[in-house]
Design brief:
Layout (H helix, E strand, L loop, with lengths): L3 H4 L26 H7 L9 E6 L15 E6 L5 E6 L6 E3 L4 E3 L9 E8 L6 H36 L4 H22 L7 E8 L6 E6 H4 L15 E2 L1 H4 L3 E2 L7 E6 L7 E6 L5 H10 L15 E6 L1 E2 L5 E2 L1 H13 L4 E4 L12 H11 L4 E5 L21 E7 L1 H6 L11 E2 L17 E4 L1 E5 L8 E5 L1 H21 L6 H11 L8 H4 L6 H10 L9 E6 L8 E3 L9 E10 L9 H9 L1 E8 L7 E2 L3 E5 L3 E7 L7 E11 L7 E11 L11 E7 L4 E6 L7 E8 L10 E9 L10 E8 L4 E7 L6 E7 L7 E10 L2 E3 L3 E3 L6 E6 L5 E16 L3 E6 L15 E11 L3 E6 L14 E7 L5 E5 L6 E3 L2 E11 L2 H5 L6 E13 L1 E2 L2 H6 L7 E3 L4 E6 L13 E9 L15 E6 L23 H18 L7 H12 L3 H14 L4 H15 L2 H8 L8 H27 L6 H9 ...
Parallel strand pairs: 1-13, 1-16, 2-13, 16-17, 17-18, 18-20, 24-31, 41-56
Antiparallel strand pairs: 3-6, 3-12, 4-5, 6-7, 7-8, 8-9, 10-11, 11-12, 14-15, 18-19, 21-22, 23-25, 25-29, 26-28, 26-30, 27-29, 30-31, 32-39, 33-38, 34-37, 34-39, 35-36, 35-38, 40-42, 42-54, 43-51, 43-53, 43-55, 44-45, 45-50, 46-49, 46-51, 47-48, 47-50, 52-54, 55-56
Length: 1269
């Protein structure tokens, strides 16, 4: 009998040892020759070089970054960690804080000033950490609720079983149910406030400021002794003492402090914690020092300065403020290199406030700027800003070599060798620049912060290739500094670009100059260290505004004609030629270079150019001719390169990129091009350039996996990426990217909006790590109708609108569907303030120019809970290319609690109904420019409660009469149709001046065709809301006039009485009330409005003995009111057209209002006293107290007096922020209601809810608005 073991392959009792782990791929350094360079030059390891990391922040205790001299600076440039601590004077040897008193040491130096504030830790935590910690805290909270909830439920059930129908029994049951509801609601609607940190800053004369960081929950237990500063360890600024601390053992998040100079408002303390793991990982690639060759960063001897640009309030999104401050700090802290693994799609290249400042830093301050090209490939024109769109920056693409594939990505097999990552962004830039300058390894396993609960992590992206390149440059600078070889940014760039290794089969738009090579770059630098022209920047442009930094032809017409371009080469000495020293001026005079010109590719007969040019300072121009007429459809790239004829071995002095994207021949009759069946080599991209037919508005792209399910059941990852390019438009607005996980025989259809006549790239790529045969077919079908106008705007005049549609590309079926789902409200600022931003961090690179801020305040009242999006059309969508330094919006509720923030790409912010305040800050160094925005209108977008559908009619008459609808019609190719959209009914929540927003689709889906059958996202439609139509009022009978038979003196006395009472009412609660009251009483004795004013004054002023005086006065007022008449009046019908009856009703309504107000205030005076029950009973005779926030104080106190805590909790929840109590007996603020809730929790013994309530009380009722900083 055979066993399973005997049937299997023979197992050795002594298996061979596993192969050695291929460690070189963990931190790739061989392919860049960084590793052999370090092996031969161990002291050129980055020492003496400081690298600034523009990122999410760096954890200086992360593995490899925790050396004493590794991270030499940590700065939060965003303001997200700022806390304005306000000056507090000690009282009774203690300081008052939001959480309670803090005991001072027995001996405090004379002249010491204390500042106090609080910070919600979740404002500092990374998003992923919040998710982990909040889940842990929620579980603990919910578990704590379970036992009390079971007890409350059992007690409630017992009361229900008794069926006590007395008034007290009913109340008791209601209270028991309310307790159950409160506990259930607490558990189900738990919103984690997170840890709250109480901060005390101490500033003593001749001493560095320090701070004490306390935890509200741990250090301020309810009923416990006040914490003492003498028991705590002070923290000093990282720059002074390198102090680092953890928030707590649960989060494992490390932080440090920095202090700004104190102002009249207080002192700004910056609590710096990283906004994500990204920055530490980037730093690890640059320079982690672990003492292990395979794990060390590229330049383990380099020092790191963490310059946090990722704003924690925005989930680590960068802001203009963060980037500008980081530039200043990089210079201030002596950085030699800056790495920025951040970026966004941009509308314009080499333009904008930030771009100008980066140029200044590189060209004037000689700091080398390295940045990621972007992770938005594989289509062309996907490089982002600042990396791929600034000439002064070294833009880095991402490459994966075979070592990385084996060790980092655990691939089963290596097919095809190394390649760039599929998603690595590709040039050119919109202005013709190459977009990618260099490539480097785009992945690594290295350091991450301790809060990740692991020491290393694999990350990939151009975010990783950029620091690898920066680390390589740090090695080069380390060598130059140690050898005392002068350099500037341009000299280093020339060495890197001219020695990079071209990777076969990768287009220059993907790899730029190639893979950075440290050894050869070093040889270049040393060989030509005495060549002064290595430091000269050759500014190369052409005579074309849109693409001045390179020849870039993309559209059908321009790719089918011969064109001549004027090329200008302008040698630059310094930044903007502003160096007027005799040394530099002499260099300008003496400069002359005889240059040979050559193309980067052979056999390029479509470019004609001169062979030579003699170049002097002030520049030279020459012409080139580009003739792409005979080129087949496809991508063509070349560079016109200028060499120093005397030393061509120096490499390129300049490169002019020339890129031709030639689309397939234009054929408006071909609306369904077939791209055919294609087999992909490993990591291969196939690009197709098509001009959509005139009038096409969308296309359906069908991709089919051509493999047979019988032969292969595994999936293949294929990337589909389409893109059209438009002037001054970021690529993200006109691209479609999908990752298709294709199974054998599977078909996927993707709808893509497009514009006819504009070249569209359709890129299909086999994902870089996909293994096995990848074979697909691709069909494209252009469709759609073209509307005129494209955007439908219906005016406030209520006339509707007329739209024509035409089917240019194909036969279509038209069935218009217009849907409005949002509306915008437009707000003008209620307050405007321009002021200088304080502190050295707001001074620009020149050390003199200060940034100013414009703060605009807007008010909005929400009638319901809503999510609002705050839009500034003149600024939104622009960051790096923006003319302004920054824009930032902060939204607060009526209690000044911060609800959310947004910036140039605004997200929705959840708000509760009531009054909200919106503050917008715009920053720039020019006050005159800021003044242009003082009247900036803010658009607040909200969703409609129910979407509104617009009806489309066949004719204008039908629209006016509400007649025949447009319906569904066939529209043969080339034909037109006309329709009219009527003005919709106004939704209740929409007001005059608002604008309804939505989309309209004209095509009708056809089940016989692939795809959705309509243009993705449709077309925009808006409806302006005009004045509300005048309502037709029901005709009312005239009220008979009552003749006033009083004499002139009597009338004058009444007017004088009312005037005096009005003056008295304005002084309620003030010291001079009594004098005015007594004077008025002489002529108005017994006048109820005057007596009512006295009652209100007594209750508001609350002087000694006020309770007794108020009760006596109220009793007197009640006696003077004919209560029987008021009661009888309400039970009878009256003829209000009778003038006498109408006047009597008016007087009785006034008296009833005075009666109920006085009775209510009598209740307030008798709280906790004998007579309370009777007073409440009297009040309830006239008004319904239950459920009325106006009488909330009576309702609450009545329940409290009867120990009905559950009902009190229900009332507090109903009253929410207290806004409903305005105009009532007592106006409650949010904090007042939270105090009441806390008291009830204490009485019930629900200690965990007491702490929960205390935390939210601090957060929901701050003393002032949180600042932008």
């Amino acid at each position: 009998m055979s066993s399973a073991l005997s049937r299997s392959s023979t197992l050795s009792s002594n298996p061979p040892p596993p192969p050695t782990f291929p460690s070189h791929g963990i931190m790739p350094k061989e392919i860049t020759t960084a590793l052999p360079f370090l092996t031969h030059n161990p002291t050129f390891d980055g020492r003496d070089v400081i690298v600034g990391i523009f990122d999410t922040g760096v954890d200086s205790l992360a593995r490899g970054l925790n050396g004493d001299s590794k991270v030499v600076g940590i700065v939060d440039c965003t303001g997200s960690g700022d806390l304005l601590c306000k000056k507090v004077d000690p009282k009774d040897d203690a300081l008052a804080t939001s959480a309670g008193p803090v005991a001072l040491p027995s001996a405090v130096p004379d002249g010491t000033t204390f500042y106090v504030g609080f910070k919600r830790a979740y404002e500092l935590y990374p998003k992923k950490l919040i998710s982990r910690v909040s889940a842990e805290r929620k579980k603990k909270f919910v578990d704590t609720c379970k036992a009390p909830l079971a007890e409350a439920k059992e007690a409630s059930d017992k009361l229900e079983a008794k069926e006590d129908k007395t008034k007290e029994g009913i109340k008791a049951r209601a209270n028991a149910k309310a307790l159950v509801t409160s506990l259930t609601s607490a558990a189900s609607s738990y919103t984690d406030p997170g840890p709250i940190k109480i901060v005390v800053v101490q500033k003593s004369p001749d001493a560095h400021p320090c701070a004490y960081i306390l935890d509200m929950e741990k250090d301020f237990p309810k009923g416990g002794s006040p914490p003492a500063l003498s028991d705590l360890t002070p923290m000093y600024a990282f720059d002074y003492n390198r102090d680092i601390a953890k928030f707590d053992d649960s989060s494992m998040l490390n932080y440090c402090l920095n202090f700004e100079t104190p102002t009249e408002d207080g002192i700004i303390l910056t609590i710096t914690a990283d906004a994500g793991a990204h920055g530490s990982h980037v730093s690890g690639i640059v320079g982690a020092d672990l003492g292990e060759e395979s794990m060390n960063g590229v330049a383990p001897g380099a020092k790191i300065v963490s310059l946090k640009i990722g704003d924690s309030r925005l989930g680590s999104m960068e802001t203009g403020v963060g980037v500008v401050r980081a530039l200043t700090e990089a210079k201030k802290r002596g950085c030699h290199i800056v790495n920025m693994s951040y970026g966004e799609a941009s509308a314009v290249a080499n333009s904008g406030r930030i771009a100008d400042l980066i140029d200044e830093m590189v060209y004037k301050d000689n700091i080398i700027f390295v940045s990621s090209a972007g992770n938005n490939g594989p289509a062309l024109m996907t490089v982002g800003a600042p990396g791929g769109l600034n000439k002064s920056i070294i833009s880095v693409g991402a490459y994966v070599d075979t070592d990385m594939m084996v060790s980092d990505y655990s691939m089963r097999e290596i097919a095809g060798g190394g390649t760039n990552f599929t998603w690595s962004s590709v040039g050119p830039a919109p202005d013709g620049m190459n977009g990618v300058d260099i490539i480097a390894p785009g992945g690594a396993i290295t350091s991450v912060p301790e809060w990740c609960l692991q020491k290393n992590q694999l990350m990939n992206g151009t975010s990783m290739s950029s620091p690898n390149c920066a680390g390589c440059i740090a090695l080069l600078l380390s060598a130059l500094i140690q050898k005392n070889v002068p350099y500037n940014a341009e000299r280093v760039k020339k060495a890197i670009f001219n020695t990079a290794k071209i990777v076969p089969d990768l287009n220059t738009l993907v790899q730029g100059n190639g893979m950075i090579q440290v050894e050869k770059a070093y040889e270049h630098l040393m060989s030509f260290k005495d060549e002064p022209s290595e430091e000269v920047r050759f500014e190369t442009t052409i005579n074309r505004v849109a693409t001045k930094n390179g020849v870039y032809l993309r559209q059908h017409d321009e790719c089918n004609k011969r064109q001549t371009f004027t090329v200008t080469i302008d040698p630059k000495f310094g930044f903007n030629d502003d160096d007027r020293s005799i040394e530099t001026q002499t260099k300008r005079v003496e400069f002359e270079m005889r240059m040979n010109l050559k193309l980067s590719v052979d056999d390029c007969d479509w470019i004609s150019f001169p062979d030579h040019v003699v170049l002097m300072h002030n520049g030279r121009s020459f012409s080139i001719e580009v003739n792409p007429c005979n080129l087949p459809s496809g991508l063509y790239t070349a560079h016109l390169i200028g060499y120093d004829s005397s030393k061509p071995e120096r490499g390129a002095m300049f490169k002019l990129p020339i890129t031709i994207v030639k689309p397939q021949p234009l054929d408006d009759s071909d609306a369904a091009p077939n791209l055919g069946q294609m087999n992909f080599a490993p990591a291969e991209r196939k690009r197709f350039f098509i001009t959509p037919p005139t009038g096409a508005t969308y296309c359906d792209i069908t991709v089919k996996d051509c493999r047979s399910p019988k032969d292969d059941a595994s999936s293949r990852l294929v990337v589909l990426h389409t893109l059209q390019s438009f002037p001054h438009t970021p690529y993200r607005d006109n691209e479609k990217q999908r990752y298709l996980q294709m199974n054998p025989g599977e078909t996927s259809v993707t709808g893509v909006a497009c514009t006819g006549g504009v070249t569209m790239e359709i890129c299909l790529a086999r994902y870089w790590s996909a293994l096995g045969l990848t074979e697909v077919s691709c069909d494209v079908r252009f469709r759609g109708v073209t509307p005129t106008p494209e955007t439908v705007n219906i005016s406030a005049a209520g006339s509707g609108t007329h739209v024509r549609v035409q089917s240019f590309a194909s036969d279509e079926v038209v069935s218009p569907v217009a849907r409005l789902d949002k509306f915008e409200t437009y707000l003008t600022p209620k307050d405007s303030k321009i002021e200088a931003t304080p502190g050295s961090r707001n001074v620009l690179l020149d050390g003199v120019t200060r940034t100013y801020s414009l703060t605009l305040t807007y008010n909005l009242t929400l009638e319901d809970d809503a999510s609002i999006t705050c839009r500034i059309p003149s600024l939104n969508g622009y960051l790096y290319e923006s003319a302004m330094e920054s824009q930032f919006v902060m939204v607060y509720d009526s209690s000044k609690m911060l609800l959310g923030v947004s910036d140039c790409w605004p997200d929705a912010i959840k708000c509760k109904k009531g009054d909200i305040t919106i503050r917008l800050q715009i920053r720039h160094s020019s006050i005159d420019l800021l003044k242009k925005f003082e009247g900036q209108v803010l658009a607040v977008e909200r969703s409609l409660k129910s979407p509104v559908t617009l009806e489309a009619y066949a004719t204008h008459c039908d629209m006016v009469r509400g007649g025949k609808k447009f319906g569904r019609r066939s529209l043969p190719q080339g034909n037109m149709a006309s329709m009219h959209f009527a003005v919709p009914s106004r939704p209740k929540e929409v007001k005059e001046g608002d604008v309804l927003k939505g989309t309209v689709n004209y095509e009708s889906s056809d089940s016989s065709l692939a795809g959705a059958g309509k243009r993705p996202k449709g077309w925009k439609i808006t409806v302006a809301i005009g004045p509300k139509e005048k309502e037709t009022k029901k005709e009312k009978a005239d009220v008979s006039e009552v003749k006033d038979e009083r004499g002139a003196v009597e009338k004058m006395e009444e007017e004088l009485r009312d005037w005096k009472v009005g003056k008295v009412e304005k002084k309620i609660g003030e010291d001079d009330f009594d004098a005015l009251y007594e004077d008025a009483l002489k002529s108005c004795e017994g006048w109820l409005p005057l007596l009512s004013a006295k009652v209100k004054h007594l209750e508001k002023k609350r002087s000694e003995g006020w309770e007794k005086a108020l009760v006596e006065l109220v009793d007197d007022v009640v006696k003077r009111i004919d209560t029987d008449k008021i009661a009888m009046w309400g039970g009878m019908k009256h003829d209000l057209t009778d003038g006498h009856v109408a006047k009597e009703k008016k007087d009785l309504d006034r008296d009833k209002g005075i009666l109920t107000d006085c009775l209510g205030r009598k209740c307030l005076a008798l709280i906790g006293e004998e007579g309370w029950d009777a007073a409440v009973k009297d009040l309830k005779k006239w008004v319904k107290v239950e459920g009325a926030d106006k009488y909330g104080v009576v309702e609450i106190e009545e329940c409290k007096s009867k120990k009905l805590g559950g009902l009190v909790l229900g009332i507090v929840k109903r009253m929410d922020d207290g806004s409903g109590s305005k105009g009532g007996l007592k106006v409650y603020k949010k904090k007042d209601l939270l105090d009441i809730r806390e008291t009830i929790y204490e009485e019930l013994g629900w200690s965990w809810l007491v702490e929960y309530n205390r935390a939210w009380k601090v957060l929901e009722a701050p003393s002032d608005y949180q600042e932008f900083n």
